[in-house]
Amino acid sequence: MTPPWTLARRAARLNPSVIRDLLKCSERPEILSLAGGLPAPETFAVEPMRAAFDHVLREAPLAALQYAASEGHGPLREQVAAALRGRGIAEACASRVLITTGSQQGLDLVARVLLDPGSTLAVETPTYLGALQAFSPCEPRFVGLASDGQGARPQALDALAAATPDLRAAYLQPNFQNPSGRLMTAERRAAIVAVAQARGVPLIEDDPYGELWFDAPPPAPLAALWPAGTLLLGSFSKVLAPGLRLGWLLAPAPLYPKLLQAKQAADLHSPGLNQRVVSALLDDGLLERHLPAVRERYRGQAEAMDAALRRHLPPGTDWQRPAGGMFFWLRLPAGLDAAALLPSALAAGVAYVPGSAFHADGSGAATLRLSFVTLSPERIAEAVARLGAVLMAAMTAMAASPTASPAAVS
Amino acid sequence: MTPPWTLARRAARLNPSVIRDLLKCSERPEILSLAGGLPAPETFAVEPMRAAFDHVLREAPLAALQYAASEGHGPLREQVAAALRGRGIAEACASRVLITTGSQQGLDLVARVLLDPGSTLAVETPTYLGALQAFSPCEPRFVGLASDGQGARPQALDALAAATPDLRAAYLQPNFQNPSGRLMTAERRAAIVAVAQARGVPLIEDDPYGELWFDAPPPAPLAALWPAGTLLLGSFSKVLAPGLRLGWLLAPAPLYPKLLQAKQAADLHSPGLNQRVVSALLDDGLLERHLPAVRERYRGQAEAMDAALRRHLPPGTDWQRPAGGMFFWLRLPAGLDAAALLPSALAAGVAYVPGSAFHADGSGAATLRLSFVTLSPERIAEAVARLGAVLMAAMTAMAASPTASPAAVS
Known about the structure:
- The structure is a homodimer.
- By secondary structure, chain A is of the alpha/beta class.
- Chain A is built from 14 helices and 15 strands.
- In chain A, strands 2-10-9-8-7-3-4 form a seven-stranded mixed β-sheet, sandwiched between helices. In chain A, strands 11-12-15-14 form a four-stranded antiparallel β-sheet. Chain A has a two-stranded parallel sheet with strand order 1-13.
- In chain A, helix 5 crosses helix 6, helix 5 packs across helix 10 and helix 7 (154-163) packs parallel to helix 8.
- At the A-B interface, helix 2, helix 3, helix 5, helix 6 and helix 10 of A face helix 2, helix 3, helix 5, helix 6 and helix 10 of B.
C-alpha cells in the first residue's frame, strides 16, 4: 500500500466480486447474459411506484426527508411482521423487525454481531456468494456442509457441530437457493431445526426468493419452527425493485438491540422516503395484485430454459428444474471446467457464473449458475443454444485430446 | 446472551447512542429540543424533489429501479468531482468518488479498511459522536488530540505520531465541527497537513457542514493540500435532505478499490433512484438557488441563539459564535455537570446533548452542545431562557451548598 496508508488486516478479505466483474463484461450488447441475478425490469411496478412517491412527497414530505429512526418506518415494520405471522411465525412482531438497506446489509449486520475472526460459520454447498462477501470482512472460517437437492444435510450439520466448539451459526437459504435453485422440503426443515436445536447452533435463514414460487408457496420458514434460534432475513428487491435498497430482518429478542446498534453505526437508517413508499404500496395491496404476474412470467421463463437445456446441452449435463426463484444450477459432464470455459462462452456471446465462486472451499469447478429471469424466453433459447455449442465443442476437443485444457478450446 | 447465541467480541462496542436515546425523550411536545442535529425541514426543497422523482420515474424508471454499480451513479460521481475541483482539489475525478448511503456509511467503510483492533486513531477534542460510533466496531484505540478554538493542535498530532507506532490516521472535521462549531483557519490547515505529511499520518477529513457558511466559504479542504494523504467525506444530508441517505467520499487511488469492495459487502450500492434524483437536482442548479436561503436562515437562527445566550446564561458560561454549521458549544461555569443537569433541563422543557459524549476519554463534563437549526428564532429564545433558568438554579444551589451534586437540584 502506498504510504502513508496502512490497511486493516480485514481489508485483505475485501476482494472484487467475480459476479460484479462479470456483469461489467457481460454488458456488451452482443452478449446474452444468463449471469446476473437481476429481476426482470418488466416486473417493476413503475406506475404505482411513481404515484406512491408523488403521494408521500405531497402528504408527508418533511417526515419522509428528515432523519428517521434506525429501526425503520413503524408502519412498514408492522406490515413485515404481519406478513411473517401469515407465513407461520406466530411470534413475529414489529419490535423485532429491523429495516435494512437491502438484504445485503442484513447479512453484514448479522456478521458484525455474530462473527469473530477465526470463529466458524457453516454454509451450504454451494452457498450464496454475496453472503460470503458480506461475512468475509469479519474473518470467519467458512465450512461448507455436505448438501443434496434439498440443501444442507442434517447429518453434516450434526457432525460439524459435534466437532466444532466455536460454531457460531449455520447460514441457509431454504427457498429456491442462490445459486442452486433448490427448495428445502418441510421434512428437511424439521430435521435441520432438530439438529440445530439439539446442538445449540443458531440459524441464519436468508429468504430473498420465497415469494417467487411457481405452483405452490414454500413450506413454513425455519423461523416458524425455532423462533428463538433463527434470524430471518428478507428483501423487497425481488418483489418490488432492487433500486429501492430495502430489506428487513426479524431477530430474536436478545439479538435485536445489538443489530440495531450495528445498523446505527453502519448508516444511521435506511432511506425514509423509500420506506414510506413501500409501506404505501403494501397498504394498497400492490403485492397481491402484482406477484401473480411476476410468478407467471418467471415460470414461463423457467420452462423456456428447461426446454432449451434439454434441447441444446450435451449428454451428461445435469440439472434440476427449480420450483421458483431465479436460477438453474448445472453440473457439466466430467472433465469440463466452467471457469475455464467462460472466455469461450463470452466469445460465443453468452455469459454465466462459474459455480466455484459459490463454494466456500473453491470446489465446484464443473458447476455453473444460469439466471432465467432477465431475458425473454426467445433470448433464453438463443443463449442456451450458444452455451450448448460451447460445451459441445469443448467435449469434442476433450475427446480428441483428453489432456488439453478446455480453456484452450474453440 | 440467551442460548444459542454467542456474540462477536466487537458487539460489546455496539452500544446505544446517547443522542438517539435523547432524541426519543425530547420528542415529547412540551420539550424544546436543542439536542438533535436535524436540519430545518423548512429547508427541504420539496417541490423540486417531487418533480425530480417524477421526472426520473418517467424518463429512466427501469435503470433507476434496477441493481446498479457499487461505485454509484456515474453522472453524480462526475458532479461531486467537479464540485470538489471547484473547491481547490485539482486532482478530484469521478473515478475516485464513491457514493455512500449517507456520510455515516462513509465513516463505516473507512473504519473497515483502515482500523484494526488495538490500532490507534487520533481524534479531535471534542469529536463527532457518530464517528466514534461508526469506528468503534473495528475496535481501535481513540486518542483525543489537545484542541483549541480552531481544532486539533499540530503539536499534539506531532507528539502523538512520534510516540505511537500504530497510528492509523487522524479524524478531523475542519468546517463548523460537530459538536464545537469551530472552523479551522487556512493557517491551521497548513500546519496540520505539514505535521501529518512529515510524520506520515493519513487524514480522514469529514465535511458534512462545509456548505453551511454564513459570511464566507471555509478555506480549501485538507484534501486540496495533501490529496494523496487525505480521505475526504461529504454528504447531501445537510444541503438537500437526510432522508435520501446519500453521501460520498473521495479516496486516494490506492485506497479506492478496497473501499469499493467494502461498500459492495455492506449494501451492494446506494439507492439508484435517489442518486438519479440528486443528480437531476444538481444538474438543474438547485443548490446554487437553494443554498443562499439556507445559509441566511441558519445565520438568523445562530444570531438568535447568540443573543439569547448573552441574555439568559449565567456569568462564567463560555461559547464562541460559530461562523457556519449547526451548533453552539458551551462551557459551563466551574462545578456544573451537563449530564447531571440534563434531567432538570428536560423537566424544565429544554433538551441538549451533554458534551462528555463527544470526548473519546469521557471528559468534558462541563460542556454541552446546542443545535440552532431546528427551532425558529422565537423558540430558540424560549429554549435558551429555560436552559438559563436551570443553570442559574444549579449555581444558586451550588453556592448555598457547595458539596451538593447539581443533579439533586431543582
